[in-house]
Amino acid sequence: HKVWWSYVGHFLHTPGYVYAYAFGNLLALSVYHRYLEVGPSFVDKYLDFLAAGGSTRPDELVRRLGMDITDPGFWDAGLKILDGMVTEVERLA
How far apart are CA 36 and CA 87, in angstroms? Predict the structure, then answer.
């Protein structure tokens, strides 16, 4: 059905709802990219990051990982992983 999304009220009535998912997913991919760069020594910092939950702003939480969400390179790292996923799906299609 072409308008299935219009039946999901929170898509329409909660400003930023879909944006929050996109932000969170890309942030997670960027953090994962850092893990791939650093390796197992990153795990303790990452677990502390997760334990902090929503206790402070995202930029402050990510700074604890030694990363800066105001740096376009942070987001580029996540987009690089996403690009690799799309390339793999296209290859398999």
Answer: 19
DSSP classification of residue 7: G
Compute the average pLDDT of residues 1-26: 76
Identify the CA nearest to 81 among candidates 28, 39, 42: 28
Q: Quick one: which of 84, 69, 57 has its CA closest to 31?
A: 69
Which are the contacts of 46, defined by CB distance < 8 A and separation ≥ 6? 31, 35, 65
Please state, in angstroms and rounded to a whole number, the distance separating the CA atoms of residues 8 and 3: 10
> pLDDT by residue (tens digit) across 41-59?
999 999 999 999 999 999 9
pTM of the model: 0.81
pLDDT at 7 over 80: no
Number of structural domains (the chain) is 1
